[in-house]
Amino acid sequence: MLLSTRAARYAALMAEPDELYPERILYPRNTRALPKTPVIGGQPIEEETCMALRTLVFGSCASPPKVEWARTGLTLRPYGQNLAFGLRTPRNTTRGLVTAVQAVMLKHFLFKCDKQDLHVNPETLLKPSYDRQIQVLTSAISEIIWRSAGGFSVSTCPNVVSNIMPKAIVVLPQDIPYFQHSVQYFQDGLTETLHLFEFSSLEDLEIFIKRYLYLFHDEGGPGAKLLLYSAVLSRGLSKVRNDLEDPKVSILSGCPEEGPMSIVIFVLTGRVSPHLHNGVLHVGDENTYAIPQWGVLMRSEVGFLVHEGDSNVGRQPGSRLKTPSLPIWVTHCLGHYGVLFNTNRELLRNYHAERRFEIQYFTCGGSHATLTVDTRVNEASGGSDATMETADIAATPLEKLIRSKWQDALIQWNGMPVM
Fold first, then answer.
1. What whole-number percentage of the chain has pLDDT above 90?
2. Which parts of 149-236 fold into alpha helices (H)?
3. Which family does it belong to (predicted)?
4. What is the mean pLDDT of the segment spanning 159-168?
């Protein structure tokens, strides 16, 4: 009975609301239209940059790119209600990027608020006003682009010591394409229309993003693609190629259903690393030179947890992702992305806070659940192997993912997930 109940809760959590009720379409009533300021200025994208950008992201500029990247925006949910902190997006290859943006937004909602809000009930912070939603989305987009440009840490450029100021680049579309369809280039309706805007300060970048936020936010718009393009150009095409470690690989090559993990690492760290381990590992044997594999170079504010199944242990993140400085984690559970978070800033700094606590799980498909994690089970029961083995058999994939961080913890679902 316990197993079936937990399995039912997990199944409900993983199912998208649109999959459960395909005939029902909900139109939020309390949303506002962002002002649509015409795009003025910037430098038209050069043909060489246009072709290199498309190839690096999608693998080719001679064939059409994945169409969902031009139709997925960073769309906010209705303000002032449950889940108002959340983005909503369809399940496609943009989900990893959008979920990582969601995690950065949660950081701002919960831990980057004004001093007068520090003592406010955290649940109130998770039901933001419209103005607060816009402020946080603007800050999250700006932060991601600025980090990609090396604006927060010199460690985004391995083995390079430089006093060069960060240069963030934002791309926005115009109506007229600068390059025609040809054998070498397949028009996608966006890349060939881009204008590039450069910024050397985070403050100027945020002002600009807020002015043109509608281009990133609008549902059915190219917001996800514009953010990825801006981050890639801010990082630099050559640096992104070095990050990928294989000149034949693109960011979205062999892309799984909800997008590659390297995009999540890009958003969280500013580097498109295919590796999750700490620091640098040199891989080789007696017959080959040791090749450096660059992982996560410094502790992240937002973490990353992975569970890829029982039969395949797969890659596990290093401690710099498992133990971030704030209690927020992007999760990758059997190919599906979500966010785990706790509203107590001290959770990872105080041993006593980690003994028993609640943790929330959210997906950009609109599913939400609260679970209680109890790490005292070993102290109380002596950690019986038989007891833990039984608990592990009954555990859902999400519980196993949580235990990749809090080993052998007792996990309790608090009611049915909210859809």
1. 68
2. 202-211, 213-217, 223-235
3. Belongs to the MINDY deubiquitinase family. FAM188 subfamily.
4. 69
